[in-house]
Amino acid sequence: MNRLWFDVLLFLLAGCKSFTLMNFKSMTNASYGSAQIGDPWTAVTLTSCIVNCRIRFNNCFSVVYNEIHNLCTPGGKITYNVSRGSYQVGDKFYYTDHCNATQGYKLYVYKSVVNCFRLTTNWAVYPEAKSNCSAIGGRIMQGKTRDSLDLFLSFCKNVYKTYTFLGLTDIVTEGTFVWEDGTVLDPTWKNTVFYSGEPNGGSVYPNDDCAVCGSYSGFSSVFDAGCLRVPPEEHYYICELVE
């Protein structure tokens, strides 16, 4: 059986699996990898490697395929700064989206950030945004690292181009900002997250308890704003998948 027909047969056998071969992308950056989830096997083509991996493992989201030895190594979800083991000449790493597309999530790979985000298209007050994200297994996007904050600010500046909620509030205790996962904002990180002179506790309006990005800070950081006033305190928001 030639390689083409072998791949076609495998694809038909895998018909019950929900995936598209073209969704697998080549990754050349060695900072990204995945945990091996099974023993390697001989695969005559990359296509058969991917199809076999998806047939054998429900959690197959990546493969290492050696084009010289036709060796297929199955892997899980792509992560950042993970050792992929000892590489041989001919090894190539391929990965695919592992997000719940039915809920509108999409995988974003940005420096050390590898996660599923849903860029919502509706405006909401903060409690509504929080509830909407929770209903689809997520939370309002946080910015707890430099890379995740930069990604959030990029979404704000280049996608929404207007006010967007960050998953950070001091609703419970005035002056104590807490991330959506319940951790308190590190004081040493405060000046990085917030615009100069912010948070100011609401110099114009009281109870500015939410962190928001927008043109006021030049989309370079966030500032505190109201969570509940309608208008103008309905803002865009981004859901990040909680796994």
Automatic annotation (TrEMBL):
Keywords linked to the UniProt accession: Signal
InterPro entries: C-type_lectin-like (IPR001304), C-type_lectin-like/link_sf (IPR016186), Ca-Dep_Lectins_ImmuneDev (IPR050801), CTDL_fold (IPR016187)
Signal peptide boundaries: 1-18
Pfam families per UniProt: Lectin_C
Highest taxon above the source species: Eukaryota
Ranges annotated as spanning the membrane: none
SMART domains xrefs: CLECT
Domain C-type lectin: 116-227
Protein name in UniProt: Uncharacterized protein LOC106073377 isoform X1
Lineage summary: Eukaryota, Metazoa, Spiralia, Lophotrochozoa, Mollusca
